[in-house]
Amino acid sequence: MLFGKKQSVAGLDIGSSSIKMVELDGKANNLNLVSLGFENLPDDSIIDGQIMELNVVSDCIQNVCTNHQVSADQVVTGVSGHSVIIKNIVLPPMSKEELEESIDWHAEEHIPYDLSDVSLDYQITENTADSTQVLIAACKRERIDSIRQAIQLAGKQPVAIDVDTFALQNCYEVNYQPVDSDVVTLLNIGASTMNVNIVKGTRSLFTRDITVGGSQFTDVLQRSLGLSFQQAEAVKRGVSHAVEGVEEKSIEPLMNNVTEIVAMEIQKTFDFYRATTEDNHTVVQKILISGGGSKLTGLAQELSRRLELPVEVLNPFRNIKVDSRKFDADYINEIMPEMAVAVGLAVRGV
Questions:
Q1: Cα gap 223→182, rounded to integer Å
Q2: From CA 215, how far away is CA 193, in angstroms rounded?
Q3: By three-state DSSP, how is residue 22 classified?
Q4: CA angle 139, 350, 80 (to 5 degrees)
Q5: What residue ranges define each of the domains in the chain, with the CATH number in brackets?
Q6: Where are the alpha helices (DSSP H) in 158-213?
Q7: DSSP three-state, residue 280
Q8: d(CA 289, CA 262)
Q9: Largest alpha-carbon pair distance within the chain?
Q10: 61-70 CB burial, b ≥16 within 10 A, e <16
């Protein structure tokens, strides 16, 4: 329809423990929050990024839309984890046409799966007289097919599938408007996966998905203290007197053990980056954390101490207008860390 209303597109973040949706309108520097929703998923609906209960996940997507007035019919969603491969590759100088013709051949060297089993995309990040730098991303087709199916069963239409790591970067760019000299590490701590993205200005230098997340804190509390899942979750989130008979001094070392693993994996990521780059001048200035795992009491301070870097919680609504008459400020603050990827996906929709 020539003068029809523009179809809105929501960002849909399908995590292993919850579904998040965000709908925005406006333009890049003048965005408004239209709607947002958050619903927990039943345990084991998604394991290792793989949808195990298709109907349960699609029902949860429908519930988010119904309970939180998300009216968009189209969605942009994302993928992460071991079935996603991201590589920065350096090729000889070539035209876009030459790259398009040869990308499969170049990708085969870097992707450990048969190319017929993956969906592949790429983007030129830098063109110089000496080289063409290309970012390639690939994901197993079966993973994409199951996500598409869950979304369509919920009555929505997937218009793009992004990578969570880059959605996180979109969220950062829109809200923090970095200059070329800004070097940050974006760290999204989900229930079962951490997405790490080292970004200079608006360019991704190095990405890594790590199979460590908030659920590991819960697991160690359950196993070591004999707690139920709900009790361990409450203790993890610092709910005072969540469980009778459990002393504070027995909780702290258990939490610190997992925090040490998280810090070691981030340090390992920095080491991997340094080992694969010839740029010895780029130094990470700070870490911005998001995701449900970032809400753990004292985690930011502990990571800052161990990594000797400033660590802040990323605010996904820092540069987005949020109508206080429509959205409860306390609710927004409560779910804010979990919404970063969904906001970044919604930015693509806009």
A1: 42
A2: 9
A3: strand
A4: 20
A5: 178-314 (3.30.420.40)
A6: 164-176
A7: coil
A8: 12
A9: 68
A10: bbebbeeeeb
φ/ψ region of 245 (left if φ > 0, alpha if ψ in -120 to 50, else beta) reads left
User: Residues 48, 82: contact at Cβ < 8 Å?
Assistant: yes
268-277, long-range: CB within 8 Å, 24+ apart, which pairs?
A: 269/185, 269/196, 269/198, 269/206, 269/208, 269/210, 270/185, 270/198, 272/206, 272/208, 273/198, 273/205, 273/206, 276/206, 277/205, 277/206
Q: What long-range pairs does 271-274 form, CB within 8 A, spacing at least 24?
A: 272/206, 272/208, 273/198, 273/205, 273/206
Between the CA of residue 110 and those of 35, 86, 198, 344, what are the distances in Å?
40, 9, 20, 27
Residues in the chain: 350
Do residues 196 and 266 lie in contact, with contact meaning Cβ atoms separated by under 8 Å? yes
- What is the DSSP pairing of strand 286-290 with strand 311-313? parallel
pLDDT, tens digit (0-9, with 9 covering 90-100), for 310-335:
999 999 999 999 999 999 999 999 99
Please tell me which residue, 273 or 2, carries the higher pLDDT value.
273
Tokens encoding 118: 């993956």
Backbone angles phi and psi of 15, in degrees to 5: -90, 175
Q: Which of the 8 DSSP states describes residue 180?
A: T
Contact 84, 137 (CB under 8 A): yes
**9 phi/psi in degrees, rounded to 5:** -125, 125
pLDDT tens digits along 132-147: 999 999 999 999 999 9
Closest CA to 84 of 146, 164, 27: 164
Q: pTM of the predicted model, to two decimals? A: 0.91
User: Does the pLDDT at position 160 exceed 50?
Assistant: yes
Question: In terms of pLDDT, which residue wins out, 277 or 264?
Answer: 264
Find where tokens 């990040």 sit. Answer: 125
Instruction: Identify the residue whose tokens are 């995590």.
Output: 15
Task: Decide: 32 and 321 in contact? Cβ < 8 Å.
Answer: yes
Angle at 303 between CA 46 and CA 318, to 5 degrees: 75
Q: Distance (Å, rounded) from C-alpha 291 to C-alpha 190?
A: 5
**What's the sign of the alpha-carbon dihedral 319, 323, 326, 329?**
positive
Q: Which two tokens stand for residue 215?
A: 């659920």
